[in-house]
Amino acid sequence: MPSPVRPLPALADLTPPPASPHRGAPRRMPGSVRRTSHLNVTWPAGYGSPMNLSAGARDLVTGRDGQATVVDSAQLRVTVDDTRTLRSLTSVPPRRALAGLIGQNGGRGYRARLRDLIPEDVTTGSPLHFLLDDMPGATLVAPIAWRLWPGEQDKLARFAAATQASRVEAMREVCSGWRADGGPLERMSQGGGLEQNLVPAHPLEQADDPLAWHRIPAPPGDSAMFRRRRRVDVIAPEPREQGVMTVDSAFRDSMWSPQGVETIVHEYGVHATVDPATMRLVGIRADPRVLPFETCPSAAGNVDLLLGEPMQTLRARVIRLLVGTDGCTHLNDALRALAEVPVLVDQLVTTGRID
User: Fold this and answer.
1) Which of 94, 95, 99, 157 has the largest count of CB atoms under 10 Å?
2) HEC profile for 252-299?
3) Residue 86: Cβ within 10 Å count
4) What is the mean pLDDT of the chain?
5) CA 123, CA 114: separation in Å to the nearest integer?
6) How far is Cα of residue 327 from the mean position of the Cα atoms in its chain?
7) What is the mean pLDDT of residues 64-72?
């Protein structure tokens, strides 16, 4: 069933885009599991050259006794050319079938090919699939990282001018940010600057908890870098309590300047509760932290369309229920990542770290 059409807020009611990035991460709780991931994109040969993607993910269980155990992990190395065609790919754990992605586009049809090539990873929600599923969105957004590099700004401006008309039509009503009557689309259609909201980042690491995140390589320093970063915490109810499971998630896209300053492009928090008996979503709230335009945050009010959904179906259901101006491309990405909550719960149970 398609999602109901919800009226957009009046333009006069829109507030400036949010500019309150996360600082650190929540303290790991006893009886919890945390999945963290990163995807770094660099261009060793400069603007317009192939992208190098270096990614990693880790699942960490914290038992009732407070002891932490790494229960799963993955690494990924990919080269993508300027048409988003995959030219090389290696992974840990290795998957020979992924050779079927080489020479194929990393956008349209990519996720369907993943389902055909590595069905077990898709079904089990492995950390490797978590990384592979992130590639289409990351490779699409990543070139914005060159915006902060003065030597490449003229090239970006020429590209924007040459593709202006096609981009206006491609973006119209694709999400809440690009609503037809909104300022961003109007400015782009008139050839003006987008005046995108960019916010300096706070570190997400925790100085008193070296296990809060897995190890993430530093920016190269001599080239632009884009990073997509995720955290999903699942906290079990106390023993003998009939409570719900709590989910706390964070999503950040950021880039680095020549001076080594991290700047955020998109950032969301998502807070949810899950019925442990049915693994259905019983509560959810989206928390916009940094978004490009004043038209973007309105999508956060539509996440209740997902209430009652089985968690394992979210990768498919989000993009069917939060469509067009009801959704936000980056919020949808953050929500889809919650589909693996049942997998993370199973890790708590199978490791014997919860009752």
Assistant:
1) 95
2) EEEEECCCCCEEEEEEEEEEEEEECCCCEEEEEEEEEEECCCCCCHHH
3) 21
4) 90
5) 11
6) 14
7) 93
